[in-house]
Write a structure and sequence with these properties.
Its main location: membrane. It comes from Salvator merianae. Keywords: Glycoprotein, Membrane, Signal, Transmembrane, Transmembrane helix. By secondary structure, the protein is an alpha+beta fold. The chain has a domain of 86 residues. It is 57% helix and 9% strand. The chain is built from 3 helices and 4 strands. Strands 2-1-3-4 form a 4-stranded antiparallel beta sheet. Strand 1 and strand 2 form a beta hairpin. The longest helix is centred in the C-terminal third of the chain and has 71 residues. It is rod-shaped, with a radius of gyration of 41 Å. The protein starts with a helix and ends in a 16-residue tail after the last helix. The relative contact order is 0.07.
Length: 182
């Protein structure tokens, strides 16, 4: 349960950080992306990365200082257009290569953490439940066997006593008791 709580806390913290990041962009006046105009990306070639990336559909290639239309049919821009290490989209300080690696690592870590937490929580619940039920059942069976054994022992003793009385063999005193001189 502690692992599940930790995952919930980390997800809340991640949400809070994303919210604060968005709030920071609004407060600091980071320009919001504007939709592309026809042929709008080519006009930012040989200008700055920030000017190019104000337009959401533009891709900045830092090696050639070109502002290109982002190829929306491809998930990643082809290397013939711009190398991944030089391509910038959204923000100027992160290239596509670093973005892919970072997102893969973060996504994989989150998936593994969620899977491990779910497995730990589920397995711990199953393990905690099974021994309790099995132990209870075993204790009940042990108690029932003990009660039956005592009943059989008492029944056998009464039967033996009846037989002894019938044939006059009932032990009143032990005939072989130690004789003491008083």
């Amino acid at each position: 349960m502690g692992a599940c709580r930790a995952v919930r806390r980390s997800l809340r913290l991640l949400g809070l950080l994303l919210f604060l990041g968005a709030l920071n962009n609004v407060v600091l006046g980071v320009p919001t992306p504007v939709p592309a105009e026809q042929g709008g990306c080519q006009q930012y070639t040989n200008k700055t990365c920030e000017e190019c990336l104000k337009n959401v559909t533009c891709l900045w290639c830092s090696s050639s200082k070109k502002c290109l239309e982002y190829p929306v049919r491809n998930i990643l821009p082809p290397s013939s257009l711009c190398a991944l290490s030089s391509a910038r989209w959204g923000v100027c300080w992160v290239n596509f290569e670093a973005l892919i690696i970072t997102m893969s690592v973060v996504g994989g870590t989150i998936l593994i953490a969620v899977c491990v937490c779910c497995c730990c929580c589920c397995c711990r619940k199953k393990k905690n439940r099974k021994p309790d039920k099995e132990d209870e059942r075993a204790a009940r069976e042990r108690e029932q066997r003990r009660v039956r054994q005592e009943e059989r022992r008492a029944e056998m003793k009464s039967r033996h006593d009846e037989i002894r009385k019938k044939y006059g063999l009932f032990k009143e005193e032990n005939p072989y008791a130690r004789f003491e001189n008083n």
